[in-house]
Design a protein that fits this description.
Glutaredoxin; seven-stranded mixed sheet; two-stranded antiparallel ribbon
Length: 185
């Protein structure tokens, strides 16, 4: 049985570094958002649900920026597929990272799937790829919020995430789910 990590709120997340569409490297350790870094792991170019999800993120990007939330979308796709996703989905304002190593994906608690051939949009899935997740990370590198999925369906709504961020920032609401051993909290 593979070891899938579980990230714990109020604890440091693993390091994360990916090449980005347009050139350069994005490193979590180099980020200095006012409130959060939002890392959105997506399945890849082959996923039509990811395309819709990223378009919704594109529409909400200014709201996140206004709230002091820096955003990146990351997949295990190749550079060519990531560049095509940005172009096809018309989401050029979102930083896109690509080439996520699947061992690193496991460190972040992501599930890995195998190819089932062509998707409904006629694009072949990679042999192996990571499933979606969304994390909000505090400027100090601690996990605040996380959701990890085994499927592309029923992802957190970005409007809900915007509203949650507003509430959390206004009320200085702490990360929840931090208890590791409920017998010794």
């Amino acid at each position: 049985m593979p070891n899938i990590a579980t990230l714990i709120p109020r604890q440091q997340v693993p390091d994360l570094e990916v090449a980005t569409v347009g050139g350069g490297t994005w490193k979590l350790a180099d980020q200095s958002p006012k409130n959060f870094t939002m890392v959105v792991f997506y399945r890849g170019l082959h996923c039509p649900i990811c395309g819709n999800y990223m378009r919704d993120l594109q529409r909400k990007l200014a709201e996140f920026t206004e709230l002091g939330v820096d955003v990146i979308a990351i997949s295990s796709d190749s550079q060519e597929r990531a560049e095509q996703a940005v172009a096809d989905w018309k989401v050029g304002d979102i930083p896109f990272g690509y080439g996520l190593d699947l061992d690193k994906a496991r460190e972040w608690g992501l599930y890995i799937s195998t190819s089932r051939g062509k998707t409904s949009v006629g694009i072949v899935e990679p042999d192996l790829f990571s499933e979606p997740a969304l994390y909000l990370i505090r400027p100090n590198g601690e996990l605040f919020f996380g959701t990890v999925q085994t499927m592309p369906f029923a992802r957190p709504n970005f409007g809900d995430i915007v509203n949650a961020c507003k509430f959390v920032i206004e009320k200085d609401y702490p990360g929840r789910g931090e208890v590791i051993d409920h017998h010794n909290p």
